[in-house]
């Protein structure tokens, strides 16, 4: 129970109510003590006036009875300049303290009341007060405190029991109110979340805000929006998964067909017909691009890429292969693909995966240049510092559209040319992350586009 919200609220309620009762009890017990002493002084005044009215013509028994009824041991009355011992009896002990009831400060009343509780033993005190109804200048009385202490204890117990009853009743009502207004709606909200989690694709399980409490209604509204977005995302992912499975099957079969067609096209180059010799390389290049596209689609459709087999490799050797293969697929005069990387520069990488990364970047760059119908250049440079190898792929193309830059590395959304799938940059970015590095668009504009690859030198960053 104490681990529940309502149980803890119940405990806090009882604790705070009792604290409030304590803050009320201390002043009230001080007030009770003041009223008790004031009552005794008024009785003492009446007894003394009765004695004075009889012209001291009463015996000792009547005097003792007056003192007993007044609850005091003696009475000293000061009228004008005279100070007169009106009533007296034997004191059970010496007077230990003097209590002045003439306009006492609140702090003194509270302190004396606490001390009375702290020292329960009997003692004789001298009390000074102003006589009621102008019955003199000052009245003093000696009072034995045993009765006062018992009266304060009885009063305190009454306050304690009353406080407990008030605390219990208040706590029960607050417990029921909190449970009804907060705990039950929260449990209902949790139950709805569990129900939705069992079948998040079911739109009928999305919560409908109904609470009249503003904060809970805001929570229900936020949860409804979140569940709506999640359901839509799950439906979209399910459709994409189904589409991906279909595309993977088609790409697999298409790749086999294209591979066969490529082998047949290679044989066409051995034909003596000049037209066939001129057309055959272009057919082979087109088939090669189609094979690369299907392989890229299949690679992206896998759950995850294989981890890179990192090794220290001369970067220029990888770039030579990539540039040569890409240069063969185009007219040499239209786009020049080259790199300025020194042969001695070695980088920790997976040669096969880096070939795919750079191939995708170079292919996008030269296709962008070819789309303009003007000659251009794709250039690869590299540099290093104490922590990082940096490779840049730049081109002299027209730059990327603003819309393409927003979803540049997202599959099927970051396509930068008409008819593209947007897979190339998504695959490249994923492979670079597998190396522990980053792929970013450094700049793009009318002067061309620059992509930047940063690879960490520290092996622990991979």
TrEMBL record:
Q: Which PROSITE patterns match?
A: HIS_KIN
Instruction: Cite the EC number.
Output: 2.7.13.3
Key words of the record: ATP-binding, Coiled coil, Kinase, Membrane, Nucleotide-binding, Phosphoprotein, Transferase, Transmembrane, Transmembrane helix, Two-component regulatory system
Q: Which GO terms describe its molecular function?
A: ATP binding; phosphorelay sensor kinase activity
Decide whether keyword Transmembrane is in the record.
yes
- Ranges in a coiled coil: 216-243
Q: Which SMART domains match?
A: HATPase_c, HisKA
Catalytic activity, reaction form: ATP + protein L-histidine = ADP + protein N-phospho-L-histidine
Question: CDD domains per the record?
Answer: HATPase, HisKA
Transmembrane ranges, per UniProt, are: 9-30, 159-178
Q: Pfam families from the entry? A: HATPase_c, HisKA
Q: What are the boundaries of the signal sequence? A: none
- Residue span(s) of domain Histidine kinase: 249-459
Q: Which domain of life is it from?
A: Bacteria
Q: What is this protein called?
A: histidine kinase
Originating organism: Jannaschia rubra
Source taxonomy: Bacteria, Pseudomonadati, Pseudomonadota, Alphaproteobacteria, Rhodobacterales
């Amino acid at each position: 129970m104490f681990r529940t919200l309502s149980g803890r609220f119940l405990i806090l309620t009882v604790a705070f109510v009792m604290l409030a009762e304590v803050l009320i009890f201390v002043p009230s017990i001080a007030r009770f003590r003041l009223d008790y002493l004031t009552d005794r002084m008024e009785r003492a005044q009446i007894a003394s006036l009765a004695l004075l009215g009889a012209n001291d013509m009463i015996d000792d028994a009547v005097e003792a009875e007056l003192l007993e009824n007044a609850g005091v041991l003696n009475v000293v009355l000061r009228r004008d300049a005279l100070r007169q011992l009106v009533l007296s009896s034997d004191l059970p002990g010496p007077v230990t303290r003097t209590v002045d009831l003439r306009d006492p400060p609140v702090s003194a009343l509270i302190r004396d009341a606490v001390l009375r509780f702290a020292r329960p033993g009997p003692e004789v005190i001298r009390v000074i007060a102003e006589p009621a109804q102008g019955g003199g200048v000052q009245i003093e009385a000696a009072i034995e405190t045993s009765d006062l202490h018992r009266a304060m204890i009885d009063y305190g117990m009454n306050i304690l029991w009353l406080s407990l009853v008030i605390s219990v009743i208040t706590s029960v009502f607050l417990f029921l109110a909190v449970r009804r207004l907060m705990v039950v709606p929260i449990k209902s909200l949790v139950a709805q979340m569990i129900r939705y989690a069992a079948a998040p694709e079911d739109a009928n399980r999305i919560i409908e805000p109904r609470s009249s409490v503003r904060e809970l209604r805001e929570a229900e509204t936020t949860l409804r929006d979140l569940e709506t977005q999640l359901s839509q995302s799950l439906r979209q992912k399910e459709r994409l998964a189904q589409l991906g499975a279909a595309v993977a099957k088609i790409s697999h079969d298409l790749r086999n067909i294209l591979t066969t067609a490529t082998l047949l096209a290679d044989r066409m180059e051995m034909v003596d017909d000049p037209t066939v010799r001129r057309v055959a390389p272009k057919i082979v290049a087109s088939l090669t691009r189609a094979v690369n596209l299907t392989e890229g689609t299949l690679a992206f459709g896998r759950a995850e890429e294989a981890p890179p087999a990192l090794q220290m490799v001369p970067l220029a050797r990888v770039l030579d292969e990539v540039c040569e293969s890409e240069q063969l697929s185009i007219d040499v005069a239209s786009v020049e693909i080259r790199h300025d990387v020194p042969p001695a520069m070695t980088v920790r990488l997976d040669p096969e995966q880096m070939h795919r990364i750079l191939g995708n970047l170079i292919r996008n760059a030269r296709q962008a240049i070819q789309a303009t119908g003007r000659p251009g250049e794709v250039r690869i440079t590299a540099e290093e510092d104490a922590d990082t190898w940096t490779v840049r792929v730049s081109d002299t193309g027209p730059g990327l559209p603003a819309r393409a830059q927003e979803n540049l590395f997202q599959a099927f959304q970051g396509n930068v040319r008409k008819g593209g799938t947007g897979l190339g940059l998504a695959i490249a970015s994923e492979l670079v992350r597998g190396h522990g590095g980053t792929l970013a668009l450094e700049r793009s504009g009318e002067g061309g586009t620059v992509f930047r690859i940063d690879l960490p030198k520290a092996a622990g960053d991979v």
